[in-house]
Amino acid sequence: MTLSSPQRSALADQVIAALRTQITSGEWPVGSRIPTEPELVEELGVARNTVREAVRALAHNGLLDIRQGSGTYVVATSELAGVMQRRFADADPGHVAEMRAALETSGARLAALRRTEQDLAQLDALLARREAAWESGDAERFVEADASLHLGVLAASHNDVLTAVYADLGEVMRDFLRLDIGEELRPEAHMDHARLIEAVHAGDEEAAAREAASHTQEWRCGSGRKGNKATKSPRTAGSPAERP
């Protein structure tokens, strides 16, 4: 994707747009490391300073995180997602859980009503990917796969506004889920999402909403984080461990 060479500022804008497209299209998913500066220079056919300017601009806008000695990573899929992540980093975990419940329950209900055959095939693939991620024992891989499945359900609702809002809040929820599951995946913490996808397949709006609600009710949403405003789980002492 070699670019033309007009004025430097306009060229930098072109590079920013090209890199943003790689992010928003999912070509560079959240959590992935983008190509190195020399690789981008070669791929885009522009000067090193132009690439550096574009990367810094996207980092400033919250889409990229430049980590010295490690590389540059995608941390959000839009400028709004980056703003959301910063704005709600210290939010009350219970409020995040309530927000997630509202969006996912509505999304699941609509998905059961509006899903297409293509949506169903995608959801089946995402469910299989989530299960494979769990079996791998890789916590970060599971977080990404779990988030992708839930976003897939929202996408099957065919409500662009609902899906966009959920996507922009996605990294907020990933952050809390990471805190919930920790660095190790515990067998007792696994929650099967097959019934949710089965309900969407069946077009059963009530069952889909019920399954989505049950998942969010059992999600601690980072409630164990030190220094957070909500440190107590709604479950009673001696109850089973809550699951992501």
Overview features:
two-stranded antiparallel sheet; mainly alpha; Four Helix Bundle (Hemerythrin (Met), subunit A); globular; 244 residues; Arc Repressor Mutant, subunit A
Question: Can you walk me through this structure?
Answer:
There is one protein chain. This protein has 244 residues and is mainly α. The chain has two domains: 68 residues, Winged helix-like DNA-binding domain superfamily/Winged helix DNA-binding domain (Arc Repressor Mutant, subunit A), CATH 1.10.10; 137 residues, GntR ligand-binding domain-like (Four Helix Bundle (Hemerythrin (Met), subunit A), Up-down Bundle), CATH 1.20.120.530. The protein is 61% helix and 3% strand. The protein is built from eleven helices and two strands, in the order H-H-H-E-E-H-H-H-H-H-H-H-H. It has a two-stranded antiparallel sheet. Strand 1 and strand 2 form a beta hairpin. The longest helix has 22 residues. It is globular, with a radius of gyration of 20 Å.
**Structural class determined from secondary elements:** mainly alpha
> Based on the structure given, which CATH architecture of the largest domain is correct?
Up-down Bundle
CATH superfamily of the largest domain: GntR ligand-binding domain-like
Order of helices and strands: HHHEEHHHHHHHH
- What is the mean pLDDT? 82
Percentage of residues in strands: under 5%
CATH class categorisation of the largest domain: Mainly Alpha
Cα end-to-end separation: 41 Å
User: How do the strands of the widest beta sheet line up side by side?
Assistant: 1-2
Percent of residues in helical segments?
Answer: 55-70%
Number of alpha- plus pi-helical segments: 11
What integer value in Å does the Rg equal?
A: 20 Å
What number of domains?
2
Question: What best-fitting shape do the alpha-carbon axes yield?
Answer: globular
Taking pLDDT < 50 over at least 5 consecutive residues as the criterion, the unreliable ranges are 221-244
CATH topology type of the largest domain:
Four Helix Bundle (Hemerythrin (Met), subunit A)
Number of strands: 2
The major pleated sheet works out as:
2 strands, antiparallel
